[in-house]
Amino acid sequence: MGIFKWVTPNQLTLARMAIVPVLLYLIFLKIPIFNVIAFGLFALAGMTDYLDGVLARSRDEVSPLGKLLDPMADKMLVSSSLIMLVYIGVADVVPTIVILMRDFAVSGLRQVAAVEGVVIEAEKGGKWKTTVQMLAIGFLILHHNPVIGYEVEIGRVLLWVSMLLTLSSGFQYFWQYYGKVMQD
Fold first, then answer.
1. 8 A C-beta contact, residue 75 and residue 96
2. Model's pTM, two decimal places?
3. Which end of the chain is more exposed for a tag (fewer CB within 10 A), N or C?
4. Contact, 22 vs 41, CB < 8 A?
């Protein structure tokens, strides 16, 4: 990881946030070559999400600021991309709304839990949800580029699957919270 020797996890997170407006503009333009560039930026942003966590843990640089910024950057990237994809008519509205509602609910739950001193750990279901969401968004961004020929169809199916995973992982968070609160 020599290339990342001078890069901090929070810098990667901030870079992910900075990519979002450019990504949205490229999606909005609906020009095939810009969709490919947008896909590349989206993939890069997804990699920084993974890498900032790896760097923070391996360097023992986990910070309160990073714990705040990382989920915020994730929500900005996923939510705004989905909203733009709905706006241009590529993503379905229902799974997008359900995904956004779950994210608001879990964010609110985490705030309540933090105030009460309850730690809610990320579940494997949440990681699967994120992976499928990222794949869905990636396919939908490539809607003009028939590399496979069914990018939109694959993206929409994956979006619905991610909605189901989103609901499941959301229930896991609430179940975990209430299980810890009831023990006290």
1. no
2. 0.89
3. C
4. yes
Please name the residues in contact with 133: beta carbons below 8 A apart, sequence gap of 6 or more: 78, 99, 158, 159, 162, 166
**Tens-digit pLDDT profile for residues 125-153:** 778 898 999 999 999 999 877 667 789 99
DSSP for the chain reads -GGGTT--HHHHHHHHHHHHHHHHHHHHHT-HHHHHHHHHHHHHHHHHHHHHHHHHHHTT---HHHHHHHHHHHHHHHHHHHHHHHHTT-S-HHHHHHHHHHHHHHHHHHHHHHHTT---PPPHHHHHHHHHHHHHHHHHHTTT--SSS-HHHHHHHHHHHHHHHHHHHHHHHHHHHHHHHHH-
> What CATH number does the domain located at 8-183 have?
1.20.120.1760
Question: Quick one: 129 exposed, middle or buried, by C-beta within 10 A (0-12, 13-18, 19+)?
Answer: buried
Helix pair angle (93-115, 64-87), 10° resolution: 160
Distance of alpha carbon 94 from alpha carbon 152, whole angstroms: 16
- Which has the closest alpha carbon to 121: 65, 68, 173, 66? 173
